[in-house]
Amino acid sequence: MPIDATLPYDDSNIFARILRGELPAKTVHEDDYALAFHDINPQAPVHILVIPKGRYVSWDDFTTKARDAEVAGFIRAVGQVARAAGLVEPGYRLLANIGGHGHQEVPHLHVHIFGGRQFREMVPPPRD
Ligand code: AMP
To answer: Ligand 1 center to residue 106 CA distance, Å?
Structure first.
């Protein structure tokens, strides 16, 4: 179910627990600002999630409250992870789902990196 991304940060969310080391993750990158790990239910040959280390629910929360260094560090980490995965030349897709209409399910900001195959239309049409 999509979440209400305007609610306060919930420290019991799955990605908060991964950040605290309480749940396992297949980590591919970690620095001061970001953690990146393989999605548990991959939708492409490469499907990596990048999350900021700070307590931010959504893109809106992050870009409102995070320090410039956190924003820059996080965005650089996304690029670095995609580069390290060999996705620059073939290309890749970034996605951040935000709130109800965005169908965000985990209330800790995350950017999906998809790669390893050709993608088609950017946003599927609505179901009848
Ligand atoms: P979203 O709809 O953008 O909130 O996507 C949440 C993503 O988190 C989905 O692609 C899930 O497969 C992924 N996910 C949920 N739990 C875990 C987990 N424990 N480790 C890795 N990925 C997860």
So the answer is: 7
Q: Whose CA is nearest to atom 5 of ligand 1?
A: 105
pTM for this one?
A: 0.96
**Structure tokens given for 14:** 């799955």
Residue 2 makes CB contacts below 8 A (sequence gap 6+) with: 97, 99, 100, 101, 102, 103, 104, 105
CATH 2.60.40.10 is right for the domain spanning 14-115: no
Q: Which long-range contacts (CB under 8 A, 24 or more apart) does 28-31 make?
A: 28/81, 28/84, 28/85, 29/77, 29/80, 29/81, 29/84, 31/73, 31/77
User: Distance between CA 50 and CA 124 in Å, rounded?
Assistant: 23
Q: 53-78 pLDDT, tens per residue?
A: 999 999 999 999 999 999 999 999 99
